[in-house]
Specification:
By secondary structure, the protein is α+β, with helices and mostly antiparallel strands. The chain is built from 14 helices and six strands. It has four domains: 25 residues; 81 residues, Serine Threonine Protein Phosphatase 5, Tetratricopeptide repeat, CATH 1.25.40; 118 residues, no CATH class; 233 residues, Outer membrane efflux proteins (OEP) (Up-down Bundle), CATH 1.20.1600. A six-stranded antiparallel sheet has the order 1-2-3-4-5-6, with no helix packed on it.
Length: 553
């Protein structure tokens, strides 16, 4: 009888005190670090291993090694820490081999690549940019080739002859210099030089264009990776923070304190959180691969990037951006120089139908000797060179596909045994008319006109395209700025809501499932925020490309 009374008394006490006990159970579940088992503490072996693994996956090998060292201080034979240090050292060695032995020394403080660092790497590895550099070099060579035409063309020669004549043997030698100097080409040589300089400007502008396009592609890949990195880190932090709550819900369910429907809701949200973390990691890996491809790098797994803060506002309006584009866009410069190039091409073609005058001449020494057959072995005769020269003027006048030419010369020839010619001096004049020998000049003139008209049209099209791209980029920037502000407000609201729900949960005023539901909404808001921030950065990069100045804004 006494046992029954005692049992009823204990049951009654529990029944009346259950609300208070339940309140304390709910409160104890939500006291973050105090109620979490030691295994999740940041200062335990598991905590150090978790941080080391996270830093290792981010490519921050120095930080990872530092946490593995802390593990070894506690457990000297911990295999995960030993193997982790070995793997991290191998990764750093591979990166040093790729970038140079001073990579980790140079980046000892940052250990991350900024967008400028990525652009430097891309510039060094870009094949199109290397081709553009060689095109500039080639254009410089063409300029010097055009300048060379202003100076005389010179040829050095040396000739030795021998033969048999009248039963004897003749020997001769001739050596000297000859040349040709343009005197008047109706400006054709100057136009060729000016055209070569225009071609050099085209090559230089083409290099700027290739580099600007490369910068945009690198920046786009860079900011997409930055978005994936931010989203991954945020999701990972939330996931780590929610692990203790999931453990508490699991233990409460196992002790039959929490209804099954409540635990299933928590379990479902936690699994979704885990899936989101894995999905973000895969997206991060793909974004990183995309950036490495833009940089033309292979097996650069350990390279990390700097995650910048939100970009500032652009202070210039659209009209100012349009003026910058019209002044600096490489494709507009290419179009402008191409118009000049074709204009000089027209002038060059026109000069082919204009008179030209060249001065020609040579100065040599020549000598011949004759040896009779019976005297070859007795008294050899020495060659005694005499002066031999030639000066002249050559002029031509094309017209209607034909060419009238005029030449005047004066020459002096020493005695020649082979031609029985004594020492002589001559002068002469030649007039000649070639009928329809230069019809190609007329076609070249027409082709030059067509090329010029096409170049002017291409320039106008490039100008319209520039205006369109600037406006699209500017409107895209304004739209992205508004989207970022909205996404930021939404994220801040969800973060405040998350803190309130955590506090309420600690006071036993709500269920854990409500907190996990909020986490899903919070991660969705963070994803929108990261995407809006990346879109804003990409829109700014697009605006830089549109105005033709990399990293201007």
């Amino acid at each position: 009888m006494k046992n029954k009374v005692l049992f009823v008394t204990i049951f009654g006490v529990i029944f009346f005190l259950w609300p208070t006990i339940s309140h304390h159970l709910h409160s104890s579940r939500a006291i973050a670090e105090d109620t979490v088992p030691d295994i999740y503490s940041d200062k335990t072996v598991m905590g150090y291993l978790t941080k080391a693994d996270r830093y290792y996956k981010q490519g921050k090998y120095h930080e990872a090694i530092s946490f593995w060292d802390r593990v070894l201080d506690i457990e000297p034979n911990n295999l995960k820490a030993v193997e982790g240090i070995k793997d991290a050292e191998k990764k750093m060695s591979k990166i040093n081999d790729f970038f140079g032995s001073s990579t980790f020394q140079d980046f000892n403080m940052a250990k991350e690549f900024s967008i400028e660092d990525c652009m430097d790497i891309a510039s060094q590895n870009s094949i199109p940019l290397e081709v553009a550099r060689h095109q500039i070099k080639l254009s410089y060579m063409k300029v010097w080739e055009a300048r060379r035409a202003f100076f005389p063309s010179l040829t050095l020669s040396w000739t030795k002859t021998s033969g048999i004549q009248s039963g004897g043997k003749t020997e001769g030698v001739e050596y000297g210099i000859e040349g040709k100097q343009p005197a008047f080409h109706s400006g054709g040589i100057m136009y060729v030089l000016a055209q070569a300089k225009a071609d050099m400007s085209i090559a230089e502008s083409n290099y700027d264009k290739v580099r600007t396009e490369l910068y945009f592609e690198v920046a786009k890949a860079y900011y997409i990776l930055a978005r994936a990195k931010k989203q991954l880190d945020y999701t990972q932090d939330i996931y780590d923070e929610m692990i203790p709550y999931h453990e508490m819900a699991k233990k409460a369910y196992e002790k039959a304190v929490t209804p099954s429907i409540e635990f299933l809701n928590v379990e479902s949200n936690f699994n979704q959180l885990y899936y989101q973390a894995v999905s973000n990691k895969n997206e991060f890996d793909m974004a990183k691969l995309n950036l490495e491809q833009k940089l033309s790098m292979e097996d650069a797994e350990g390279v990390d990037i700097t995650v910048d803060e939100e970009p500032g506002n652009i202070t210039k309006d659209m009209n100012a951006c349009l003026e910058l584009a019209l002044e600096n866009r490489p494709d507009l410069k290419i179009g402008l120089y191409t118009v000049k190039y074709t204009e000089y091409g027209k002038k060059i073609a026109d000069t082919k139908e204009m008179p030209s005058i060249d001065l020609v001449g040579n100065y040599k020494k020549a000598s011949e000797v004759y040896r009779e057959s019976f005297s070859i072995l007795n008294e050899p005769q020495k060659l005694d060179p005499h002066k031999k020269w030639y000066v002249g003027l050559e002029a031509s006048m094309p017209f209607l596909g034909s060419t009238a030419s005029y030449s005047y010369f004066r020459r002096h020839d020493p005695p020649s045994l082979s031609t029985f010619q004594p020492d002589s001096e001559q002068r002469g004049t030649t007039l000649k008319l070639d009928i329809l020998n230069n019809l190609k000049n007329l076609t070249e003139i027409e082709q030059a006109k067509i090329a010029n008209i096409k170049a002017e049209q291409d320039l106008e099209d490039a100008r319209k395209k520039a205006i369109m791209e600037v406006k699209e980029a500017y409107y895209g920037y304004e739209r992205s700025r508004i989207q970022l502000a909205a996404a930021k407000s939404q994220k801040e609201f969800r973060e405040k809501e998350f803190k309130i729900l955590k506090y309420k949960n600690s006071m036993g005023e709500n269920e854990l499932s409500e907190l996990f539901d909020n986490v899903t909404k919070l991660l969705g808001a963070d994803a929108l925020y990261c995407e809006a921030e990346a879109n804003l950065n990409v829109s700014i990069a697009a605006l830089n490309k549109a105005i033709g100045i990399e990293n201007y804004f």
